[in-house]
Design goal:
The structure is a single chain. By secondary structure, the protein is mainly α. It has two domains: 1-49, no CATH class; 51-91, no CATH class. Helices cover 49% and strands 0% of the residues. It is built from six helices and no strands. The longest helix is centred in the middle third of the chain and has 12 residues, at 36-47. The protein is globular, with a radius of gyration of 15 Å.
Length: 91
């Protein structure tokens, strides 16, 4: 299947499959959210249209290496990606 093959090579698609939706099922929580702000924020994380360093620092010229996209909210020196922001960041 086209989608499955691309999930292996594309970081963003792989993150979605591994962390957000491993079984590629409809997400029931989206139908129960009532706050537009929460829906927008979840959509930003899911579509990588957020402002975390993992996303924004690849726009720099020259492109900032992945290992240098460090979280600016905490002192753990972790890469500021979706997983760190949602699950690991103490801030």
């Amino acid at each position: 299947m086209w989608c499955e093959k691309h999930l292996e090579v594309k970081r963003k698609l792989r993150y979605y499959k591994e962390v957000i939706n491993p079984n590629l099922e409809d997400q029931k929580y989206l139908s129960v959210l009532t706050s537009a702000k929460k829906i927008i924020n979840i959509a930003k994380i899911r579509t990588n249209s957020h402002e975390l360093h993992s996303e924004t620092w690849h726009w720099t010229i020259p492109k900032t290496p992945w290992t240098e996209r460090i979280c600016h909210l905490c002192e753990t020196m972790s890469i500021e990606d979706e997983n760190h922001f949602l699950l690991d960041c103490p801030a």
